[in-house]
Each structure stands twice: as structure tokens, then as C-alpha cells.
Amino acid sequence: MELEFPEDLRYLDSHEYIRLDGEIATIGISAYAIEQLGDLVFLELPEVGDSLERGSSFGSIESVKAAEDLYPPVSGTVIDRNEAMIETPEVIADDPYGDGWLLKVRVENPDDELEDTLSAHDYRAMLEGEEGI
To answer: Where does the Lipoyl-binding domain start and stop, copy by copy?
Structure first.
């Protein structure tokens, strides 16, 4: 299966992605992470109004194979969470970069927050180095 890495996104080495539109960030997990986890069975996300701090876990995702913490690429306040994905996490795999988003966050300092993220090209290169995808 050919994995997609949309060019308009930024990625973390822990496999979360961010799409920034002004001061609003959409956060999700990459197709690679979903492929590695397998069938998703549980998703825990923060509540609307909660604060996120870049580098600190904001929730977890579990599959039949593993459980992983989720990390925000940015700091900010949760303004929306994808309730449908909490109810049926297995459908995240159907469209991870579209309907499978996890959170929307109002970012405190959009220009400063993305410096530790990877471009699609760099993310793919990292994965090729690790896994030979």
C-alpha cells in the first residue's frame, strides 16, 4: 500500500500531523501510524477548552496491537474534538487527513510553534531511514 503524506501538513517524529490555517490547527495521526498500529479500538482525547502544551501527551490511541500516547505539535486551547472518531476510532484509517482528524486547537503562537515539525518530504525520509518504506 502506498502511504500518503500530504504536502500541506507538518509532521512530528511521533507520527502526529498538523494542518495550520491561521491560528487554528487541525491535529491527527499519520497514515503510517495507523498502518503500524493496525485495527484501532480506543481513542482518548481532551475536552473542548482544555489547554495543550507542545511535547506533553494529550491523549492516547489503542489498537489490537499497541497503545500509544498522542502529542500535540503545538501549544494552545482545544476548540473542537472529533466525537465521531472517539465513538468509532476504527474509521480514522478511512481518511486520516480528512474526516479522521482528532482535534482543532487555537494556537498561541502559530509562527513559532512549527519549528520542531517535519515537512512531508522530511517525514517520508525519516520513515524510509527507520523502516525502509
So the answer is: 24-106
